[in-house]
Specification:
CATH topology of the largest domain: Nucleotidyltransferase, domain 5
Number of strands: 27
CATH superfamily of the largest domain: ATPase, nucleotide binding domain
CATH architecture of the largest domain: 2-Layer Sandwich
Distance between the termini: 68 Å
């Protein structure tokens, strides 16, 4: 029987960034300095013919880290080989295991046990957002999901990301793992410890971040015992220190290639080629899905995913991470670039700095991030479609189409504005969006039979109408993401966003069930800044609600947006088109748009390594700062 050593490592595997104390990556600069090599490992390390030659993280049962099992009261109840047996008993009995992984703690439970998954949801207070699943190998993955060759390559890559896959029906996975979703996020074991648990349990396992919802990932044994007490039934710890957090990376197959949705373990930090920096620059990114970035030498360096900066603990950890990066790479920025939104914590952080400050428009940063990844030079037509960002005129935007040439950029087009009833509340309570759109179409009386209208009390409807008529707390927005939400609500597949993008994801999944290729009517005004008039499309959708299948309506909505992208590209007459922003993590929309653009002779670029959501903003901010002499920011 193989030794089943949980910390097995060679020159191609094992932790790196999460255990690094300082550069360069040598053993004495990592947490492995706590584990002097035994004679056998020492011999392998110095033998150039051995695959463990200069593998900085190598060790063995005689000289490496040790496992320990802790109960919720902090008592040690097992160590060494018995730890695995206790952890397996925990999982098989439907209990929740807190596992110290490569970049932090993870919460694990039997993914086939509905009651166990529901218990994890309640305890973690994560009631809706899907969990990821870990399987032992590709064969086990293919029993529960459809896997193509591109996805299989991503699953088996050394980066070991979570890969979004279409779930098979009746696959044995508990409904509570990914409720109301056609997809499962699946990963293979990323360490020897994960592999032993997956193989010996014989179970697909939910593996999710070891934190309380919204807080940073736990990395310290004592912190985990404190923060995860009340969630985990058992703790599988070890004594190798984690120096810095790394969430699992998430990827998705879009247009026959892998696109990174969240950059973490295995991918981050990310390095992109850049023009030589005169002085180092710090970019602090956005407020949601934050990553920050540094420009020094001839590279842009993007940090791992840091999370949403709405939680005090996450904000504190984010600031610590910025200082840590500067110390690790021995860099002292001479200036800082940030978003123009004054309420973003990242903007407020930059404003308190003594460094020279350079505000960068949100959607320009999206497009320049895509340009930086692909090293594109203007002229470029960029589509920055997302949930929300501040436009330069102070309006709430999310469908910016920008034209960039060698000397300047200009706003080329955007969606016709519609009301956010209650402001940002409408980003979650999306029935407010649908109500506002019906009001704008003068169609409220004709559509009282819609499911979301029946859910709204007479008092709510009256209140919303008063707000619209008086213009009280109903800011106009031009967000493509919010338009997705409104259509999802009209189709009665969602009425609330419990997590970012929930309604839009359901709409994408619904559209993928149809091969309908029809397009709804729309208008694009001939003005200096073209207005994309969505009203003809929404009227057509309302007329079809009782006559067409929901999946066909969803498909036609996506088709229409792709056609709008093509028409605007033809109007601009620019060869290079960049698609960026969270809406282009929608594979159905992106693939439709790319097909139309390619067939019409355009060269289309989407972000692959760089997340196209706000996780890529910091890189775009750096590139905007670098190109300030080429692009007049106005």
């Amino acid at each position: 029987m193989p030794c089943q050593y949980p910390f097995i490592s060679c020159s191609d595997c094992g932790p790196r960034f999460s255990i690094l104390r300082q550069l360069p990556f040598d053993r004495h600069h990592t947490s492995m300095v706590d584990f002097p090599l035994c004679k056998e490992c020492e011999a392998d390390y110095h033998n150039p013919e051995n695959r463990r030659f200069h593998a900085q993280t190598l060790s063995c049962p005689a000289c490496g880290p040790e496992l320990q099992v802790i109960d919720p009261r902090g008592n040690s109840i097992g160590s060494g080989s018995s730890s695995i047996d206790l952890a397996l008993d925990c999982l098989r009995s439907g209990q929740i295991l807190a596992l110290k992984g490569i970049g932090g703690f993870q919460l694990c439970v039997d993914a086939t046990n509905q009651a166990a998954v529901e218990r994890l949801r309640r305890r973690k207070q994560r009631l809706h957002k899907p969990f990821a699943v870990m399987t032992a190998d590709c064969a086990a993955t293919e029993q529960i999901c459809l896997v193509n060759s591109v996805q299989r390559s991503a699953l088996t890559a050394a980066t070991n990301p979570i890969v979004l896959l279409v779930a098979k029906t009746q696959n044995g996975i508990a409904d509570a793992v990914a409720p109301h979703s056609d997809w499962l996020g699946v990963m293979l074991p990323a360490s020897g410890l994960h592999l032993i648990l997956a193989r010996r349990s014989g179970l697909p396992l939910v593996v999710t971040s070891g934190n309380t919802e919204g807080s940073p990932l736990c990395i310290d044994n004592e912190q985990a015992l404190h923060d995860l007490n009340g969630i985990a039934d058992l703790f599988l710890n070890h004594n190798r220190r984690i120096q810095r957090r790394l969430d699992d990376s998430v990827v998705k197959c879009i247009a026959n290639d892998i696109s990174v949705l969240r950059s973490g373990r295995g991918y981050a930090p990310m390095v992109f080629p850049a023009p030589r920096a005169e002085n180092p620059v710090l970019a602090v990114g956005g407020h949601f899905s934050n990553s920050f970035a540094l420009h020094f030498g001839e590279q842009y360096l993007l940090s791992p995913y840091c999370g949403d900066l709405k939680n005090a603990a996450t904000r504190s950890q984010w600031q610590t991470s910025i200082r840590d990066f500067q110390n690790l790479y021995k860099i002292r920025p001479r200036s800082v670039v940030h978003d123009i939104h004054p309420e973003y914590f990242s903007t407020q952080y930059a404003q308190t700095s003594e460094l020279p400050k350079h505000p960068i428009p949100h959607h320009l940063a999206h497009i320049l991030g895509g340009m930086a990844e692909h090293q594109l030079q203007p002229p470029v037509l960029g589509f920055a479609w997302d949930g929300m960002g501040l436009a330069e005129d102070g309006s709430l935007a999310g469908s910016e189409v920008l034209y960039l040439d060698g000397t300047e950029y200009k706003r080329f087009a955007h969606l016709r504005a519609f009301a956010l009833i209650g402001g940002d509340t409408a980003s979650q309570q999306i029935d407010r969006l649908a109500f506002g759109i019906l009001a704008q179409l003068n169609a409220l009386d004709d559509h009282q039979d819609l499911a979301f209208m029946k859910r709204l009390s007479t008092q709510h409807q009256s209140g919303f109408m008063q707000m619209l008529k008086q213009g009280v707390h109903c800011p106009p927005c031009t967000s493509a993401g919010r338009l997705f939400d409104a259509v999802a609500c009209l189709l009665n597949i969602a009425d609330y966003n419990h997590f970012q993008g929930q309604a839009a994801i359901r709409l994408e999944q619904l559209a993928a069930q149809s091969d309908d290729d029809h397009i709804y009517p729309f208008k694009i005004t001939e003005e200096t800044v073209a207005i994309i008039d969505w009203r003809p499309m929404l009227v057509a959708i309302l007329n079809e609600l009782n006559r067409s299948a929901p999946q066909d309506i969803a498909a036609r909505f996506h088709n229409t947006l792709a056609e709008i992208i093509l028409k605007l590209a033809q109007q601009a007459g620019v060869e290079y088109v960049v698609l960026s922003g969270g809406c282009f993590q929608n594979a159905h929309l992106t693939e439709k748009a790319m097909q139309k653009l390619h067939s019409s002779g355009f060269k289309t670029f989407i972000q692959r390594k760089l997340p196209s959501n706000d996780g890529g903003l910091a890189l775009g901010q750096l590139h905007a700062h670098q190109l300030k002499k080429l692009v007049t920011i106005r």
